[in-house]
Amino acid sequence: MYELDDLNMDEAVLKQYSGEEEKITILKKIDNKKIVSVGAFAFSEHREIVEITLPETVVSIGAHAFYNCRNLASITLYDTVTDIGDGAFKNCYRLHNINIIGTGLNTKCLKGVLSEVNNEVKVTIHYDDDDAVLVFPYYLYNYEENTPARIVNQITEGSGIQYRECVDGADVNYMQYDRLFQAGMYIDVKDASYKIACYRLKYPYKLSEDAKRQYKDYLNKNIIEIVNDMVKNEDYDGLNLIFSMEILDRESCMSCIDTARENSHMEGLGQLLAYQKKHFAPSHRKFEF
Fold first, then answer.
1. What InterPro entries does its record include (predicted)?
2. Which residues contact 66 (CB under 8 A, 6 or more apart)?
3. Among 30, 46, 145, 148, which residue's CB has the most CB atoms within a 10 Å radius?
4. Is the CATH number of domain 1-117 3.40.640.10?
5. pTM
6. Are 8 and 36 a contacting pair, CB within 8 Å?
7. How many CB atoms sit inside 10 A of residue 160's CB?
8. What is the mean pLDDT of the chain?
9. Cα separation, 19 vs 118, whole angstroms
10. Phi and psi based region of residue 119 (left: phi greater than 0; alpha: psi -120 to 50; beta: remaining)
């Protein structure tokens, strides 16, 4: 299944993968060799791969290592990775979950992956003392023709670039990340805004009181619109995230139930009714005789 390239008596590079597994966990040692690197093109074109976990022994990922792994949705790696080659995750269009395990003193691995992926990504960083969950919005490169000058200008659409700039290689700049929220609302962050707000509140790693207030105010003011959009778009993962935060009050819940019923969104209606029953069921009085 694995072809190795020996570096010395104890260490090797994972040169080539030839299996057909959807979920892969690479061991620290293969054939008694410590795996210290994933080689160039090692997993390229394996479109069956959905999830992969790298061991803490890996310190580098070669160029185009996961090129065209178009169904790769989740990757777990340690912050021991300090070098990611060009195009390592190129065309990994469905990569939406990145899990980083480590001390937080090195985010070069995260910076390297994010630079390769322009779609919306949820990043979970497992620090020694706590967890942080961050959402990085999408961005796109577009091209605008300047006819009089006979040149084509590259322009960037989406706030994802600005959010990615919060990862500087040492640690995430959480103050800068939270500061972008209001500015991003005027660009395109609205599609990801409830996720950014919910995950920062649910996992408040290095979250200031001002930022906490900002996220709470946004959710409180927009909760009905957010939930109605989720029901309409059948975003049940998002709906469950909102439910887990328990920020949907009785009146807002009733409004969303009415909207779901009027538009015949039956599955969303069922979930809203279940939430209502769990949190706002009428209390039964007990009478003593």
1. LRR_5, LRR_dom_sf, Surface_bspA-like
2. 43, 44, 49, 52, 72, 88, 89, 92
3. 46
4. no
5. 0.87
6. no
7. 25
8. 89
9. 28
10. beta
CB 276 within 8 A of CB 257: yes
CA end-to-end span of the chain: 75
- Where are the chain's structural domains? 1-117, 137-207, 208-280
Mean pLDDT by 10 residues, the chain (289 residues): 92 96 97 96 97 96 96 95 94 95 78 90 92 92 60 67 87 93 65 90 96 94 93 93 92 96 96 95 54
**Do 34 and 60 contact (CB within 8 A), yes or no?**
no
- Secondary structure tally for the chain: helices H, strands E: 8, 14
- What pLDDT does 228 receive? 95
DSSP β-bridge partners for residue 77: 100
Are residues 61 and 37 in contact, defined by beta-carbon separation less than 8 angstroms? yes
Q: Which residue type sits at 158?
A: G
